[in-house]
Amino acid sequence: REGQFGRIDTNGTALTALKFKNLHYTNGYLSYQKEELWGIMNGNNVSVVPARYEAIYDVSGDFVVAELEGLTGVIDVTGRQWVPFVYESVRSVAENVFVVEREEKLGIYAEGKLLVPEVYDTIESIETEFLLLTEGDNFSYLDLQRREIIRMQEQ
Fold this sequence. Notes:
four-stranded antiparallel beta sheet, mainly beta, 155 residues
């Protein structure tokens, strides 16, 4: 039907009914839009996260960056919340590590806990092991493996 989407296999056999407004496949999961809300289906076409989110921005591993009531947070593919929906934006920088933004300041969540408070002006990835954190003219590094901040001293 026009404006309705579903899934078919390589033989053209219907795997789902034509009941979705939009479908998007990412990392083994299918984001689906039903009415105006988004949810997540697994590879077996089973809804693992009900359609209750205004947007799904990213599926990274088993984590989903989504929008709820105009704010951004992170859930896993079972619907468990890992980053609360209180942020203007959230982006994944490593496995289960997210940069969060509120009131133009950045912080870091890791393993579902606020690791670095929202005080930084910029946070950038340095290869895969470090994040560069800047606050005004000061900068530090976050060692992602040890979850430790290394503050740089002025010479």
